[in-house]
Amino acid sequence: MEILRYIRRKLAASGLLPQSRLAYFSLLMLGMDLLLVLIRWLILLAARSSSIESGGTGSDALGGWIALLTFVNAILFGILAIRWLRNTLMWRLRNRLIVTYLFIGVIPVGLIAAIVLLSGYLIAAQFAISLALHDIHTEVDSLQQANAELAGRLADAAHRGVPLSQPGIVQDNLAALRKNFPGLQVTATFKRQTETFGAQRTRPSTAPPVWIKGQFGGLVSEDDHTLYLLTVTQTPVGNDVLTLQASVPVDARELSRISRNLSGIILIRGKIVANRVIFDMKNPEGTVRGGSVPPAINFLDLNVPFPILQFPSPIPIQNWQTGEDEKNLMLMATTRLSVLYQRLFSPSSDYASLIQTALAGSAIVLALIELVALIIGVRLTRTITRSVAALYQGTERVNQGDFRHRIEVKTRDQLAALETSFNSMTTSLEALIAEQKEKQRLESELAIAQEVQGQLFPKLDQQIASLEVHGVCRPARTVSGDYYDFLMLGAERMGIAVGDISGKGISAALLMATVHSAVRVYEFEGLPSHARLTTAAFAAASRHKGGLATADAPSTTNGNAAHSPSEVLWLLNRHLFRSTPTEKYATMFLGVFDGSNRQLTYCNAGHLPPMILGANGEVRRLEAGGTVVGLLDNMSYEEKSVELHSKDLFVAYSDGVTEPENEFGEFGEARLLEILQANQQLPLARLSEIVTAAVVDWMGAAEQPDDVTLVLARAL
User: Fold this and answer.
1) What global pTM score does this model have?
2) What share of the chain is helix, strand, coil (3-state, %, to 5)?
């Protein structure tokens, strides 16, 4: 198992581990193929060792299966190779561009070049055959002309009565003709007398066949399949006709002489089998070869036709005895391109050198154009691949969290615009990440501030024997600018503070903490030390004029230096005015309930007037006081006292309770009063839930506009 795991890890590391069902199936088929090969080898080995000659049947059957499985494996692994090329090699853009250029540029050019070369080859081969036929016809015409000249000499001799058999009658002419036509044989027929002239008699001396009606010249075949160049000239002599035949055997020597301006000529005679002509160029019988291909003058001087691509052409031939056309003779010419060029552009032509120079110049110009196109294509490809590689590397860096990475823009194209956009994106992402981190830091700080502020609100409902209280604050944001507090001033005395700081958020929360601390300091510890020094010479009674706290100094009301609500608000106003910006202020309601006489002494500094709901339905509003604290200096605050009867409900709230709006308008004080009166006898916590739920339902899906604060107290 460890070995298998090791092999699997190695294959996975090298990328050779099968990843698809087709790959596993291909491996299975390959294993079966190798297993059959092994079994066949063992069978053959056993047969050889036991000298069993008839044991080849099983191995032959396995050989068929092996061949089938090998064919199937070739197809399967070919498909896998194509997939690998597509997924691995073709993954890179550069390779895709190279393949694209191959399909768009190289393959079409290669196909065009192949068509041009193939066409040029066919044209060159046909041109060589055409030249060979032309040379044969030229040879026949020359022989025809020589035969006509001899016929004229013999006709003149016949007019003079000289017999055909007289030697020397045409010997001079024949001697000259044999230099041009080796193997020439001339046969003259006149008045049923036939005479043959020639050093060698290569064909029978007979009169022309009956199908000859006049002049004749061409390639003929005898019954023994011997080929001849033969011409016939008939010349009238009186009432008789002198017939002269001139024949040259078509053998290697004659073909070499005919193809001296070409290279080589091959005549191939086919066999007629079942009305079909079969040609076998490898069979020397019936094949006549003449001439040889000259050596190449350079590496471009190729054979025409190529040895592996040879296309013979039929050549017209007639049977000498019957005059019928035979179609079993083919001609093939072998030469070189330089020879064809010399035949096509004769050196004697004035335009030959000009054409050669023009062709060479065109080839050079086309090669330079191709080189320039290649350089341009490579440079364009590099710009594309460089940009894509830079973008890929940039995305990888961004994926790793490096938002400071920038791509160097070197061009002014669409890819450069994409690189610029990438740089802009990373810049924006970097700023966004920094902003997000800052936001998270602020949220963390806000969470801490919310936790700290939560500590400022009363944790548990504080009670005295004659009064139960309850308060709730629902912030519009993370922290609240509203303020409420319950101050235990003794066994039967409790202070109730409710405030609303201008603004929202952190600044309002900080000011709320300041107000909270100041109220507790002023209420519990009395005047600050410098204020005590200032007022030490004055009596407390002279500074308290009918319950009005003046700008001179606050008064003390008892031995423990606790202040009345108006004095605390006077001190708070002075403190906030001197320590906060001009636009910062707060509304504040501060009341002190004395259970011994059931009196609530209060001062309202610009806050929404709290209400006292009597058990009999009476509603009293607590409006006495003054303006907001912290806005103006040296302000006076009035305080009053009211009596709380048993079951009377004290309600203080912020504007976040009455001012929320929907399509029907504001929630309003009247709706709040209606809910309170309908549920006045419920526990304070439950009554608080009903009121806040009604406010939230009134706002609906809209954002909470302001902090919702509600403070309830019930006299017992």
Assistant:
1) 0.51
2) 50, 20, 30
